[in-house]
Each structure stands twice: as C-alpha cells, then as structure tokens.
Amino acid sequence: MSEQQSTAVNGADAPSNPDLSAIKAVAFDCYGTLIDFGDAHFVDVMGVVAMQNALQIEGKALFDRWLAASKEVWRQRGRDPDQPTAGPEPRFGTYTEIWAEMFDRAFAEMEAKGDAAGAHDLLVERLSQAPPYAEVREVIEALRPHYRLCVLSNADDAWLHASLGKAGLRFELVVSSESAKSYKPRTKIFHDTAALLGLPPEQVLYVGDSPAADVLGAKHAGMPVAWLNRYGATRPENVPQPDLEIVDLRGLLGPLLGAGR
C-alpha cells in the first residue's frame, strides 16, 4: 500500500487536518485494529462449529444467527441494542458467559443440540492465535517515544493478554471489558481507561475499527477518535463523525508526529 493510501482520510467524513495537539495518550482497540481478526475470521470459525455440531448450515448463516441471538442476550442484561449508550449500565457478564448464551440461543433456534462451551472455546483459541496486522509493530514503536500507549478492548482478560503476548506487543496499560466490568460503547469503560492513565478523556485518542463500539462509544465519552476503516465501509447515519479516518495504522503517524514531536 502506498504512503498516500496509507494516510488517506475520507475527506467528507473527517477533518483532513484535525487538531490533535492536546493528545497525551493513544488507546487502541485490539481485534480488527491491532490483531487481524474480523468478521471473515468469525465466519470461518462458525463454519467449523457448524461442522463439529453436525448443523446443516453454512458458517455465514450461523454467524448471522449468533449475532441475532446477541440482541436478546443484551436485552436480558438491560441494554437496548438499538441504543447501546443509553440507560443505566447493563448487568455485566464475561464473554465466557455471553458467547455461550449466544451459541445456546442460536442452536435452540435451529432446534439443534450443540456444544456451546466448546464453540466458545474454539473461538477463543482462534482469537488468541491471530497475528497482528503487518504495520502494527512499526506504528507502535514510532509512537512509543512520544505518547503513552494502551489497549482498550471488549475482551476477557485471559485471551486478550494471550493475544498481545503472542503478537509481542507491549503497552503501559491493558483494559479489558472484564477488568472494567463494562463494554464498549458504554461511557464507563472509556472513562475508566482515562482515569487509569490519569488523564482527562479529551487527551486520549481512541483508535478502533467499529463504528458503533469505537467511534460512537469514544465520542459519547468525550474522547477524540480515529476510525480505522480498512475496507472502505460507509459510516452509519447514527454514528458521529470521527476526528480522523484512516485505512491502516500508518495513517496515525502524520497527524500525531507531524507537529515536531
């Protein structure tokens, strides 16, 4: 990818020259941002789950059912999936609990018996083994002398730390949804991260690939945000404009290092 492409900003959707002079720390999402694991990988895992449980369904179809099941799981925990930042903090559960519930519901809808715990374990194993994107180490090491760096991810502690360790990525602070007892896009997890850094939210740039969890969540919490839009997605209408839009992490270097740092 050319340098021009790697630093491109979708001009209609984000300022081409955002003022990031107040930024003291950069917080990264993990999966889909640092670690190469996204929807296509979930679909692959779902295909294996379907085969292992003798389900007459393709991986993409099982993934869609699994995502649909998540809406009811979250409703039962007190979060409106259509307004995820609104209302009181939902009843917390780890991914071990939530993903198993989602698999149970997806299997039940198909009137099939399935091993929900085994499906969860396979997904976690694949997450833990996934590699970083090609540019990640280069960008982290370029930013490290100038900014405090941390990870903020919707994840359980065990496999988040396993992923970062396998990838050889070191950060001052790693905040999981499990440790914060909160999930993006809720304000609490962003504010907890800023507090652990000893900084106000407006001095922490959040970098993530999800319009809802990352862009909506960070902006709602008062954090500037860089939307990592690797595949040219269209920003949903209900998601606010990010401060920066990039197609890979190299797109951070000009805005963050161009001020003589």
Structure write-up:
The protein is α/β, with parallel strands linked by helices. The chain has two domains: 3-36 and 132-257, 3-Layer(aba) Sandwich (Rossmann fold), CATH 3.40.50.1000; 39-128, Orthogonal Bundle (DNA polymerase, domain 1). Helices cover 44% and strands 10% of the residues. The protein has eleven helices and six strands. Strands 3-2-1-4-5-6 form a six-stranded parallel beta sheet, sandwiched between helices. Strand 4, helix 10 (211-220) and strand 5 form a beta-alpha-beta unit. The chain is globular. The chain starts with a helix and ends with a helix.
SSE layout:
Layout lengths: L2 H4 L18 E4 L10 H14 L6 H18 L18 H15 L6 H14 L6 H8 L4 E6 L3 H11 L5 E4 H4 L6 H11 L6 E5 L2 H10 L4 E4 L15 E3 L6 H5 L4
Parallel strand pairs: 1-2, 1-4, 2-3, 4-5, 5-6
As a whole number of angstroms, the C-alpha radius of gyration is 18 Å
Rounded mean pLDDT score:
92
Helix content range: 40-55%
Q: Report the strand count.
A: 6
CATH topology assignment of the largest domain: Rossmann fold
* CATH superfamily label of the largest domain: HAD superfamily/HAD-like
Beta content:
5-15%
Shape: globular
User: In terms of per-residue confidence, which ranges show pLDDT below 50 for 5 or more consecutive residues?
Assistant: 1-12
- Specify the number of helices: 11
What is the quaternary state of this protein?
A: single chain
Tell me the strand order in the biggest sheet: 3-2-1-4-5-6
Largest sheet: 6 strands, parallel
